[in-house]
Amino acid sequence: MQLSEVPKLNHLNSNNFFLLCGPCAIEGEDMALRIAEKVVSITEKLKIPYVFKGSFKKANRSRIDSFTGIGDEKALKILQKVSQTFDIPTVTDIHEISDAAMAAEYVDVLQIPAFLVRQTDLVVAAAETGKVVNLKKGQFMSPEAMKHAVQKVKDTGNTKAWITDRGTMFGYQDMIVDFRGIPTMRQYAPTVLDVTHSLQQPNQSVGVTGGRPEMIETIARAGVVNHVDGLFIETHFDPANAKSDGANMLHLDNLEKLLTNLVAIRKTVNNL
C-alpha cells in the first residue's frame, strides 16, 4: 500500500520513517490531547508522518483487576477528537469481530494485537471495513508466517495492510528483536518496529508485565539502520502512574531527543 492512502498523514515527501505514537491506553480526554499536542509539535518540526496511537480498551491483561478502559464509545470519541483537533490520523487495536465496524467509525487504522493475528475472522472483519489494517506479528510467529496474515487482508479486496514486529519470546520472561525479519516482512507489506513492546518482560509473578525502557533508543536505532518503514513508540508524561504498560513506555519528555537522533540516522542511511 501507499502511505498516501492514510487520511491526514502529513510529510509524505520527507523520506522519513512514519511514526505510530501515543499512550498505551486512553485514560481520559485531557491526557490524550496533552500527549498528542506534544508529539504533533515534535513531528511537525522533524517532518515525520505521524499517526496517534491509543487503545480504546485493553482486553489482553494478565490479571482480572487490571485496567481495561474508560468505556468503549467514550474512548473512541476521544480518539476522534484527537484526530479532529490536530488533523492527524489515529490507530487503535481491536479484540473482537464486533469491535471492527464500531472502531472504524472513529479511527483510520485498525490494529490486530499480536496474540490475535492468527484469528482469521477478526482479521477479515477489520479488512472489510476498508481501513488500513496493522497486523502485529505474534511473539510466537516467524516473519515468513506474516505473509499469510497479509494475504487474508488482501483476499477481502483491501490492499491496505501493515506488519508490526513487536519482538519474539525469548524464554518465558523476555523478548528479543530478530532484525533479520525486517527485510523479510517488508516483502509483504510496509513494516513497523514496535520499539516499546519489544522491550516488555512478560509473565512476571506479580501479574504485571515488566520492561526495559532504557533500551528504547538501542532498539529504535537498529530498526532505522535496517530500513524499517515505521516506528511504534508508546509514550506518557507519567509512565510510573500510567494505567497500562507503564514499565516499558518512553517518558514524553525524552521523545524529542530520541526522534531527533533517529531522523539523523535515517538521513545517513538514505545517503548510503
Concise account of the structure shown:
With 272 residues, this protein is an alpha/beta fold. It contains eight helices and 13 strands. The chain has helices at residues 29-46, 72-86, 97-104, 120-127, 146-154, 181-186, 216-225, 255-270, and strands at residues 18-22, 50-53, 90-93, 109-112, 132-136, 161-165, 168-169, 175-176, 191-194, 200-201, 210-211, 230-236, 250-251.
Overview of this structure, please?
The protein is α/β, with parallel strands linked by helices and 272 residues long. Helix content is 33%, strand content 18%. The chain has 8 helices and 13 strands. The strands form 3 sheets. Strands 1-2-3-4-5-6-9-12 form an 8-stranded parallel beta barrel, surrounded by 6 helices. A two-stranded antiparallel sheet has the order 7-8. A hairpin with a 5-residue loop joins strand 7 and strand 8. Helix 3 packs parallel to helix 4. The longest helix has 18 residues, at 29-46. The two termini are 25 Å apart. The model has no long low-confidence stretch (mean pLDDT 94).
Please give a handful of descriptors for the protein shown.
single chain; 272 residues; alpha/beta; eight-stranded parallel barrel
Structural class estimated from helices and strands: alpha/beta
Shape annotation: globular
Largest sheet: 8 strands, parallel, barrel
Task: Please state the average pLDDT score.
Answer: 94
Overall helicity: 25-40%
Number of strands: 13
List the strand order in the largest sheet.
1-2-3-4-5-6-9-12
Report the radius of gyration as a whole number of Å.
Answer: 17 Å
Distance between the termini: 25 Å
How much of the sequence lies in strands comes to 15-25%
| Assembly type | single chain
Would you list the SSEs in sequence order as H and E? Answer: EHEHEHEHEHEEEHEEEHEEH
Helical segment count: 8
- Name the poorly predicted regions: none
